[in-house]
Specification:
8 strands; 8-stranded mixed β-sheet
Length: 203
């Protein structure tokens, strides 16, 4: 299996074993390294139990040729065509903004109906979804962007005492000095010593 397929399998497993996720009281965000990769992940999730309960939210718009705010990772026309096809299929007759607004509203208020958002840079700053329980990092984030991303799962909610950071890139090894410090916990995960509401699970 490819690395991306393994990540998808990990996430699907988490939705079956992590208490808040399996109880459909919490949800998660996956941070991809490019728009192309985000679309690849989205396509892979369509073959899992998360189909219909997963959305991709990036700066891409099928009617826009040039992407200025994010690295699409599209070095070939084939990748560009793939991204275009994914978006035109998932949007249908909707505008990109309408699709994203509906996905965000469900993510905030209906975690059972919107379990996972796949993003690149959007929603990492200022998106307040208290039920968001897990942040999966497959993109290298640094400094302020990393701190803002961590804050996405650091909101308290009824029955939620902490959030999880699942780090596939070793991002937290290069975290800013002002970020929470992590110490080893008994269960093999690492816990944020400076903030009891965060746990890091390095994979």
């Amino acid at each position: 299996r490819s690395r991306m397929e393994k990540v998808v399998s990990d996430i699907v497993l988490d939705f079956n074993v992590k208490p808040r996720l399996s109880a459909e009281r919490g949800n998660a965000i996956l941070v991809a390294s490019s728009i192309y990769e985000a679309c690849r992940y989205f396509e892979l999730f369509q073959a899992t139990e998360l189909k219909g309960k997963c959305a991709v939210v990036t700066s891409y718009n099928p009617s826009t040729r040039d992407i200025n705010t994010e690295d699409t990772g599209s070095n070939t026309e084939t990748e560009k065509e793939f991204v275009y096809k994914i978006y035109t299929d998932l949007l249908g007759d909707k505008k990109t903004e309408t699709y994203e607004d509906e996905a965000k509203e469900k993510f905030i208020n209906e975690p059972a109906n919107m379990k996972l958002l796949v993003v690149v840079a959007k929603l990492l700053v200022g998106f307040d979804a208290k039920r968001n329980t897990v942040l999966y990092l497959t993109r290298n984030l640094k400094d302020h962007t990393l701190l803002q991303a961590i804050a996405r799962v650091n909101r308290l909610h009824e029955g939620k005492e902490f959030g999880y950071i699942i780090d596939y890139r070793g991002v937290l090894e290069n975290r800013p000095a002002q970020s929470p410090t992590f110490s080893q916990s008994e269960n093999g995960q690492t816990r944020a010593a400076g903030n009891p509401r965060l746990r890091n699970d390095h994979r």
